[in-house]
Amino acid sequence: MVVAKHIFLCSILAACMCCTSVQAAQQPQAWSESLAVPDSDVPSLLLPIVDRSALLAEDEALLAAAAGGSANKRMRVARGSDVSADTTKEGTWQTLADGSRLWRLRVLAPQATDLQIGFARFQLPEGATVLQVYEPYGLPAKMVHLVLVNGHYIAPEDRATTALKAGDALAIWPPIAGG
């Protein structure tokens, strides 16, 4: 079994999975089965409150300092927080009718506008491809816009043949608009 490290899935991607699963011919068992624990009773992991005012003030100060060209002018798009959740101690497990197991944990981040969940360990079968990571969710190809393995772009036509190996970092992003 291969352990791919740092599998990052944007929360937008997760939301797209939920929305598109209705249209998929075969959705994951967990989405169609009656769950033993209702969503409201799933244990929660509460993250610290995000102080958006303080973050915006920091950004303004950095931009003001960068006006003279002496500082980094890149815009911040996120603030990371290291969080650990042990599947043997937190969340809830359920065995589904097909014998597979489902682990659930609600992640709450007060005042956050978005969440991005990163996994430090993610087990995949030997020889698993990039496509096999997201294909079971029935995502339309247009929703899997940017795919990187170890920081290198993987073109759509290469995703079915690009095998992951132990220690690889996989990032999958949906199309993002904004300005």
Q: How would you sum up the major sheet?
A: 5 strands, mixed
The helix/strand class is: alpha+beta
Using only C-alpha atoms, the radius of gyration works out to: 19 Å
Question: Ranges with pLDDT <50 over ≥5 residues?
Answer: 1-25
Which fold does the CATH topology refer to? Ubiquitin-like (UB roll)
Number of strands: 11
Number of domains: 1
Give helix and strand order, one letter per element, not per position: EEHHEHEEEEEHEEE
Give the second-level CATH assignment, the architecture: Roll
Instruction: Tell the overall outline.
Output: globular
Q: Mean pLDDT, rounded to whole units?
A: 76
Query: How far is the first residue's CA from the last residue's CA?
Result: 42 Å
The CATH class designation is Alpha Beta
Strand order of the largest sheet: 7-2-11-9-10
For CATH, the homologous superfamily is named as: Beta-grasp domain
The share of residues in helices is: 10-25%
Helices and strands, with pairings:
Blueprint: E1 2-4, E2 7-10, H1 11-20, H2 29-32, E3 44-46, H3 52-66, E4 92-95, E5 101-104, E6 106-108, E7 116-119, E8 122-124, H4 130-134, E9 146-149, E10 152-153, E11 170-173
Parallel strand pairs: 2-11, 3-6
Antiparallel strand pairs: 1-8, 2-7, 4-5, 9-10, 9-11
